[in-house]
Amino acid sequence: MIRPASTPRHRTPAPREAVNAVRWPDVARLPTARPGQTSVARYLVNSALNRLSLLDTYRSGTPATGAPAKMVLHDPDAFHLRIACHGLIGFGESYMAGEWDSDDLPGVLTVLAASTDRLVPAPLRRLRPLWVSARPGRDRNTRQGARDNIHRHYDLSNELFAAFLDPTLTYSCGLFPAFPARFTSLATAQCRKIDRLLDLARVGDGTRLLEIGTGWGALALRAASRGARVTTLTLSAKQAAHTRARVRAAGLTGRVDVQLRDYRDVEGRHDAVVSVEMIEAVGAEYWPAYFMTLCNALAPGGRIALQSITMGHRQMLNTDAAHTWISKYVFPGGLIPSREAINEHAATAGLRTTADTGYGEHYAETLRLWRERFTENRLTVARLGFDTVFQRMWEFYLAYSEAGFRSRYLDVRQILLTEGTSR
Known about the structure:
Number of domains: 2
CATH topology of the largest domain: Rossmann fold
Radius of gyration: 22 Å
Strand order of the largest sheet: 5-4-3-6-7-9-8
Strand content: 5-15%
Structural class: alpha/beta
CATH architecture of the largest domain: 3-Layer(aba) Sandwich
Shape: globular
CATH class of the largest domain: Alpha Beta
Largest sheet: 7 strands, mixed
Helix content: 40-55%
């Protein structure tokens, strides 16, 4: 029997009654299960969590330093009901609702991510379609759909992102010179990442550079400081405005052209193309168009430097059509590709993979630093108008992502593409 435990330090579970039902309808209300559905889920979930030694059935005081990661169930009935009805989406929504907690959230999620293939008994895995819902049609990355999806994440608030990113406002994996990374600032790691990508694409004085996915302008500014002439594309109005202001402040207006434009509408030929963690927002349906755009934008002899999160090919195929917690609450329309998918689509577009290097442990460290900064700045986040449910959602998102890299379920690659057939 699982008994409710004391709330871990630094946690503020919101009573379900206090959740804004308009903003968070599926968090504010509990779903309705079919007869016996919750009992089956309780048995399967508890068996898996006990097998992994994740359940904290009783706690008094604070766990000792170095204690194994544990979950505390404040409302076991609601926790099991949500999972019974909505699987992993319900697992995340239960955390948002304050129905479970952990003093080491990324630790718990890392154990779960490393055990993904063993959580459900093999004979029951074929029943996955019964508790995994299909992606909603509104999330498709048509031209209008892509604008809407980008707006829902990247236009939340520039100040929100500033509350946890480094001063360069770089929202992708940094590269650290060594581990442990405590002697390297995140800003330094981000500059190392940008420089390596620019070196990979051979960006220098006079280079005509196309950047697909502006972010908040750090790469465009650094490329322009090398003497490149940069065209950078984004669908985020807030990112575009912020980057234009940074370009003006740096005196680089003549060298950086910030365009609010879909990648499918690229014009001209460029000596180099760089796209950092943009492909994940494209969606598998549109990967052929994305890679053909890359190829068509390249001048003869040009180079394309991509940075992409990746997952295993089988996992990607399972995720492609599924509506997940991440796609529902964080990245609508997104899908992380596999290395096989990248190589296949690149080759079909007439591109050759000539370099491919992984940096998964660097992303785990980057996410840890983001998560810690977010937690430290929760009062700032609250003052910006983001409620407790949002804060718990964002903390879960950062810890969930960190766990993906720590467990090696996810990786991040820097890939060089050039003209020609793939190796």
